[in-house]
Amino acid sequence: MMESSCHELMEEIKAIFNKIGSSGSLSLNEKIILYQLAGNLAFNGGNDECKRLKSNLPQTGQYIVYPGRLDSLEWLEKHWGKYLKKFNKDKDFIFQDQLRRLDPNLMKAVENQCCRNGLKVKDFIAPKKERTDMELAIVGEYGILNAARLAIAKQRRSLSENKKSSDVKGNTADFGL
């Protein structure tokens, strides 16, 4: 979902709003998706900081996958250090969940080596929570609350319109029309 363009995200949000209009409500899962879409839209259309973070991540095939049987922390520093604050950046550009997706064997090896040596993985690779916190700071409370406010207003309006529509139908039926 993070790779979606702003246009695609807006289309997904419109589809959800159309569903609200037709059914009059959203399921909990749809509400969660709406919040995620709003956050992604703000992130994708966000400031240069966000765009720089996303553009710095390597794509599949642009990096060497951990072959195993080597020191995983050395491999991490050599091949991923340029994305990590621990080794030579002022901030993290890759996080545990992203590295787990890009190179699951390396992530597992780092976890095992840290466990054996009494180290913490988060001291080398920031957890997803830190990325989420950063994204929330960029989107801001206003962006999150505004998306929620709009979704609730749309739902309220569609419920009101459905009620008015059913009242009118009920009244016309009483007159035999």
Topology summary:
Layout: H1 6-23, H2 28-44, H3 48-55, H4 72-80, H5 96-102, H6 104-116, H7 128-174
Could you walk me through the main structural features you see in this protein, from its secondary elements to its overall organization?
This protein has 177 residues and is mainly alpha-helical. The protein is built from seven helices and no strands. The protein has two domains: 1-45 and 135-177; 60-126, no CATH class. It starts with 5 loop residues before the first helix and ends with a helix.
Short description:
This protein has helices spanning 6-23, 28-44, 48-55, 72-80, 96-102, 104-116, 128-174. The chain has 177 residues and is mostly helical.
Proportion in β-strands: under 5%
Helix segment tally: 7
Which radius of gyration do the C-alpha atoms yield?
A: 23 Å
What count of domains describes the coordinates? 2
Main pleated-sheet profile? none
Q: Specify the helix fraction band.
A: 55-70%
Order of helices and strands: HHHHHHH
Poorly predicted runs are 173-177
Shape: elongated
Distance, first to last CA: 49 Å
Number of strands: 0
Mean pLDDT: 76
Regarding quaternary structure, how should these chains be classified?
Answer: single chain
Structural category is mainly alpha
